[in-house]
Input
Amino acid sequence: MTTPRAASSQNAAIQTMAGAVDDRSNTGEEVNAFIAQLLRLTPAEHDAPQERSRKRAALAALRRGLGKAPGAATEMLPYIVPILPENAYGWREQACYLVASLFALYRPERGEQVEPNFGVAYLRLIEATKSDSTERRFLALLDAPRDSLPDHLRHAIGQMAATNRRIPIDWRSLLKDILSWDADDRWVQRKWAKGFYTARTIRTTTTDSANHDAR
Output
């Protein structure tokens, strides 16, 4: 059994090692501002009933965009168009629409600690579902061309939303990674793979050590 202290050390090691791949992500204030606007749609306990209803309606409208091209779900437009970055054209625009719809499907809980590497988040999905096919889907995601990436992400995050375990996602990092999916050296795919397999190795080693100490 892993103690809280061991789990904390384990998570720190995962974050350090999983982040070792360079992060030439599409930083930029416009991306951060876009995600900040989405986060404001998360209902809060202190919200008045009318405000809470407004936010839920906005999230429901954004979910209508799942699996659709930008602009195809007209319900999204009043909520997403005003917050799109000025340079959101082509793939950048598509990525923003994609992330907005995925965010609405699996919005964060206030105050939760997010996982900046989606590969580690995917490992947590495998641990939650205990499905043999989930790792194959992860490898298929890494191998996916940009055009099919939205389908793979929709399936993965849909599974996360369906589990009983919270798997926090860093939406800023995810959007930045999606924008760089076609990088020639595939640094995003390498980052996610490193996060996934490093975390799995650390957790396996920690579990084996704990089992040995318990004997």
The domain at 27-214 is CATH 1.10.520.40 (Peroxidase; domain 1).
